[in-house]
Design brief:
With about 290 residues, the protein is of the alpha+beta class. Helix content is about 30%, strand content about 30%. α1 packs parallel to α2, α2 crosses α3 and α8 crosses α9. The protein starts with a strand and ends in a 9-residue tail after the last strand.
Amino acid sequence: MLYEKAPAKINLTLDVLHKRPDNFHEVEMIMTTVDLADRIWLRPTDNGKIIIKASERHVPNDRKNLAYQAAELLQIECGITKGVEITLEKSIPVAAGLAGGSSDAAATLRGLNRLWNLKLSVEELARLGARIGSDVSFCVHGGTALATGRGELIEILPPPPNCWVILAKPAISVSTGDIYGKLNLSAIDHIDTVRMIEALRAEDYDKMCNSVGNVLETVTMDLYPQVVVLKEQMKRFGADAVLMSGSGPTVFGLVKHESRVPRIYNGLKGFCPEVYAVRMVGGHTILD
């Protein structure tokens, strides 16, 4: 049996440039991984079947599951006749804007690349991942990156300055498609992505905090006032920067000083059932 880690991601920035002819949105996002992670176990079988076993009852165990799709895609593309049993031990909240399903798919691609001795590069795995979902390419790479196109074009960036990340997910789930569908492209105040890149390259924590932004926030907050409350409370308890990740509903706060973490974490527990205090994950994926 082979083990692979599937870390969550947060969006330091998320900008939407326009609607594409293929009905996807052209995006410009800076994402980074954090050490809240699902655990993936892969056990080879000889019957050609893909079996999903998930610890979370809301996670599908059929072709709707992105890890299933990842395994099936590798079987088809690489002519693999063997099967695999995929056990997903979930820690990342479902439908939270943290790319849990995409990260599971990316971990499955990386793991099966080893298990089936496919010898595919990170770039080849990322290109395959783009056929599964827009965040999968980034999750194959991990670390910190600028994602453009519909999210599949990846440029590796330096990791953020060391800090804590407080994640808080309200007891709601959000459909990414619904949020993008309600976005008014003519009323967007676009994000200064270049400024965030400069902050990361300069290892400037304050500039990073002042450069976070997500154009989907207003859409989600209009629909779900719980997100507004979480943002306000996280700021009140002392986070240095607060932003919604992806299409939400998870809100994260960046915290430089560890001494502040317990106050923010404990304060948020009164407003939100799922709160996590985690660190950034450093570098991107390097295959053995």
